[in-house]
Amino acid sequence: QLYREAQECLTLLSQRLGSQKFFFGDSPASLDAFVFSHLAPLLKAKLPNGKLQQHLKSLQNLCNYCTSILSLYFPWDGGESCLLLHSVGLSEGEEDPHKRRNQLLSVLVGLVAMLGYAFMSGIVSIQRGGMGPAGRQPIAMEEEEEEE
User: So where does this one cross the membrane (predicted)?
Assistant: First the structure.
């Protein structure tokens, strides 16, 4: 029932938008920001059940609405169209051939940043020299055996 109501909501939004660029004409309003904030993730995210996503993709005017907002306000994203992946014949896994490399680099950069912060703030420090904690000499292996 939830999917049915969500599909009905999308259909009503599509009917309200019609062939306009935005819901209230040629310039965006707060409703456009609200609707886009719900439609864009639904359109772009990988979902375990793509039933609602497929319904959104079948409503071409809502799909074009999201694409135009993406290309207008987020040009670095590219604002790819709804049918681009399907028309070219690419699967979701082939979208970014360097995805694994980029993920690994992101993790490494994050790790270096965290370690750098830890060293710079004094959370972690490296002590050099022969002195152990509290100014004591470290116990050599031979001395440990003698003490036992």
Answer: 104-126
Q: Domain ranges for the chain, please list them.
A: 1-74
Kindly report, residue by residue over 53-77, the tens digit of the pLDDT: 999 999 999 999 999 998 888 877 5
Distance in angstroms (rounded) separating the CA atoms of residues 86 and 80: 12
Question: How far is Cα 141 from Cα 21, in angstroms, rounded to an integer?
Answer: 78
Q: Could you give the maximum distance between any two Cα atoms of the chain, in Å?
A: 89
**Dihedral sign from CA coordinates of 140, 141, 142, 147:** positive
Q: Record the tokens describing residue 10, joined without a space.
A: 């999308």
CA distance 88 to 140: 68
Instruction: Count Cβ neighbours within 10 Å for each residue of 19-43 and write b for 16 or more, e otherwise.
Output: eebbbeeeebeeebeebbeebbebb
**Which CATH code fits 1-74?**
1.20.1050.10
Where does the chain have alpha helices with state H? 2-17, 30-44, 51-58, 60-73, 84-88, 99-121, 141-147
User: Are 11 and 22 within 8 A, CB to CB?
Assistant: no
Model pTM above 0.70: no
